[in-house]
Amino acid sequence: MYAGRVEGGTDALADRSPRPGSIRSRIPNDVREAILEFALDHEDLTPCELAVKYTDEKRNFASGSSAYRILKAEGLITAPAHVVIKAADEFHDKANRPKELYSR
């Protein structure tokens, strides 16, 4: 038998959430607001470019993915314009010989 001290007793056997109590790496709200204000002043920049410029000018690090998530949460990231290309039913330049299949 184990003779050491038992932590928590029978309460330690209860189901608990595996999630941590708080998120340590969360960006503080004042930094989030500063990034949003900075983004509104520099609307022509991508989130990655914005993060680099913000880090250079404000001396406070922000990653491109963090900038993207902050802007996305505020609805400032729009969906890119997709170009739809329809596939043809058959090749326009058909191969006449087997070697032509691999030389294209």
Write the layout of secondary structure elements.
Layout: H1 29-41, H2 47-58, H3 64-73, H4 98-102
Brief description of this entry?
The chain is mainly alpha-helical. Helices cover 38% and strands 0% of the residues.
Entry keywords:
104 residues; mainly alpha; 0% strand
Order of helices and strands: HHHH
- On the 0 to 100 scale, the average pLDDT is 82
How many domains make up the 3D coordinates? 1
What shape does the CA trace take? flat
Task: Give the CA-CA distance, first to last residue.
Answer: 74 Å
Q: What is the count of DSSP helices, taking H or I runs of 4+ residues?
A: 4
Classify the secondary structure makeup into a structural class.
mainly alpha
Beta strand %: under 5%
The description of the largest β-sheet is: none
Rounded to the nearest angstrom, the radius of gyration is 28 Å
Query: pLDDT under 50 segments (min length 5)?
Result: none
- Percent range of helical residues: 25-40%
Would you report the number of β strands? Answer: 0
